[in-house]
From TrEMBL:
<dbReference type="GO" id="GO:0004096">
    <property type="term" value="F:catalase activity"/>
</dbReference>
<protein>
    <recommendedName>
        <fullName>catalase</fullName>
        <ecNumber>1.11.1.6</ecNumber>
    </recommendedName>
</protein>
<dbReference type="Pfam" id="PF00199">
    <property type="entry name" value="Catalase"/>
</dbReference>
<dbReference type="InterPro" id="IPR011614">
    <property type="entry name" value="Catalase_core"/>
</dbReference>
<keyword id="KW-0560">Oxidoreductase</keyword>
<dbReference type="GO" id="GO:0042744">
    <property type="term" value="P:hydrogen peroxide catabolic process"/>
</dbReference>
<dbReference type="InterPro" id="IPR024712">
    <property type="entry name" value="Catalase_clade2"/>
</dbReference>
<keyword id="KW-0349">Heme</keyword>
<dbReference type="InterPro" id="IPR018028">
    <property type="entry name" value="Catalase"/>
</dbReference>
<feature type="domain" description="Catalase core">
    <location>
        <begin position="1"/>
        <end position="183"/>
    </location>
</feature>
<keyword id="KW-0575">Peroxidase</keyword>
<dbReference type="GO" id="GO:0006979">
    <property type="term" value="P:response to oxidative stress"/>
</dbReference>
<dbReference type="GO" id="GO:0005829">
    <property type="term" value="C:cytosol"/>
</dbReference>
<dbReference type="GO" id="GO:0046872">
    <property type="term" value="F:metal ion binding"/>
</dbReference>
<keyword id="KW-0408">Iron</keyword>
<keyword id="KW-0376">Hydrogen peroxide</keyword>
<dbReference type="GO" id="GO:0020037">
    <property type="term" value="F:heme binding"/>
</dbReference>
Amino acid sequence: DTQKVTPVFVRFSTVQGSKGSPDTVRDVRGFATKFYTDQGVFDLVGNNIPVFFIQDAIKFPDLIHAVKPEPHNEIPQGGSAHDTFWDFFAQNPESTHTTVWAMSDRGIPKNYRQMEGFGVNTFRLVNKEGQSHFVKFHWKPIYGLESMVWDEAQIVSGKNIDFHRQDLYESIQKGDYPTWELG
């Protein structure tokens, strides 16, 4: 039923930075969606980049350790300035595609409302006739897609490290709800 409205909860996040790091750093953004359906709750994990860093889940802890700040001093915050970041990507060529996306304009969204989302996983869906199809879910922002350039992001983060969160909160408070088309 294409007319049915399903309540959802969306959690936006950065990947590299710790709690309190600036919103406007060059980073992959998490776009996790929880659907409250008549059949139960369905979680769809996503990012703002259509490809994922790794193909083997066993590498995920190594990826996270490589991109997060050093545990003893929390430096650097949400950036690619430390050697572990580049060492991981040099040793895992499958990450090149994601790295190129992150280093492009897509690495710094203008705001969450104008950011695309892409499901991390591929699903096998079966129709009524028993035919199966592999699909990945994509969220397309109704407000269009927009990014920040590096210089703009640096200025914004110097004035307001919570820029994306504040923009989202203020838009919702005004009744200007963010909207995406899921396909």
